[in-house]
Amino acid sequence: MKTRKLTVSDIRGRKVREDVNPLVMVTAYDAPSARIANEAGVDLILVGDSLAMVVLGYDNTLQVSIRDMIYHTEAVARIRPDVHVIADMPWMSYHVSDEDAVKNAAALIRAGADSVKVEVRLDQLPTIERILSCDIPVIGHIGLTPQAVYASGGFKVQAKQHEEVVALIQLARKLENVGCYAVLLECVPMFVAEAVTVRVGIPTIGIGAGPYCDGQVLVYHDILGLEKRSYPRFVRNYADLHTTSTEALTNFAADVRSQAFPDRSESYDSRKWTIGLQESLSQLDD
Ligand code: KIV
Q: What is the whole-number distance in angstroms between the Cα of residue 47 and the centre of ligand 1?
């Protein structure tokens, strides 16, 4: 059970053991979702660039800018959650130069994040080191990296070949060695995730990576079933808020049309203000 906001040192030591539970991470993009995540007692909130798809209606995450990420990180931080907040570095915020990467990571920290998440390829390790050298904690995101959707040819399970598994483990170890406090593993077979988890000293947080990770993350809108669509196999809907919300709005529309809403108890009673009003109105109508 979470008792206080986790620091990166707390998280770094959170490998699952007999007496240590997996970390719970959920995405949030605005004040209400952050408030709910906070009240639910999650360990980590990720202001993910998935907001491109679940909030802004794009087909992939490439459309969100650093300005969007700052705006949404500020909205989450504004409620002062008692939870470690991670902000995603969006596509093109760390690809052009290390100077850009550092400035953009710093902007997310100034917006209220406690650390940043970066989707990493091997050749981007120097950039990660540069961000870390400015005392900005980083969680490295490996496996399926959605910002590479066009280069990799789609959202597919990764590390199916032996060489890819070895490369994934080596990359996770390098992230640990340069100083990342955790690794996020997306869409890899569960035994590959396990192979990574047992070979690194920092926690692995999985999405679509099976049960043998040190933590799990899901997208807020997916947990709540806010969209009526087919979900990937790794999503578990814990509610059907699409149906609940549609029913609520349908009922509202019906009540307005039938004049069942609002009733008198939902209206301001102006009787005491209308003393003498009749007279003023009749003067108006003369
Ligand atoms: O942006 C996001 O929500 C993510 C998750 C897939 C973990 O990176």
A: 8
